[in-house]
Amino acid sequence: MKKWLLLTFLFCLSVSIQAQDQIIGQWHNAEKSSIVRVYKATNGKYYGKIAWLEEDFNADGTSPRVDELNPDEGRKNTPLLNLIILKGLEYNEAEKQWQNGTIYDPENGKTYECYCELNADGSLYFKGYVLGITWLGRSTTWTRP
């Protein structure tokens, strides 16, 4: 009987780990102008960095494209390629969401609190918001390349 309970517990744990790790991998942004690689860090949280850019040139034609709209003056010359834009997401099993993270939009230089969840079609729905108010923000959907 104890073996049966242990096997059942291990199976349920395995299914839960597989569900939360479905976010891992590469994702096209909504415009398909970049690919973000999402990974799980050693702290158990999920992060994402820009792995590919359709346009890797600045407005003046120089390359690599930099984070020119970053509000931090010291980061305006940071290349966008490999820039971490998704930080600290944690999986909430009860809600089937990754929550309590932030997402940075290099197109406007703003960082939003965020959560995300997998849609039935396998796409990844993000809701970015400010001041802890989920209806005060915007959403986007990422797809697998």
Describe the structure.
The chain is mainly β. It has one domain (about 25-140): Lipocalin. The chain has one helix at about 1-20, and strands spanning about 25-30, 35-40, 45-55, 85-90, 95-105, 110-120, 125-130, 135-140. Strands 1-2-3-4-5-6-7-8 form an 8-stranded antiparallel β-sheet, with no helix packed on it. About 15% of the residues are buried.
Note the gap between the termini.
46 Å
- Evaluate the radius of gyration: 18 Å
Please report which band the strand proportion falls in: under 5%, 5-15%, 15-25%, 25-35%, 35-45% or over 45%: 35-45%
CATH first level:
Mainly Beta
* Number of beta-strand segments: 8
Order of helices and strands: HEEEEEEEE
Number of helical runs?
1
Q: Characterize the main sheet.
A: 8 strands, antiparallel
Note the overall shape. globular
Tell me the number of structural domains.
1
Q: Helix fraction?
A: 10-25%
**Mean model confidence by pLDDT:** 88
* Main sheet: strand order: 1-2-3-4-5-6-7-8
**Oligomeric status:** single chain
- Per CATH, which architecture? Beta Barrel
The CATH topology assignment is: Lipocalin
- Poorly predicted runs are 4-17
Secondary structure class reads mainly beta
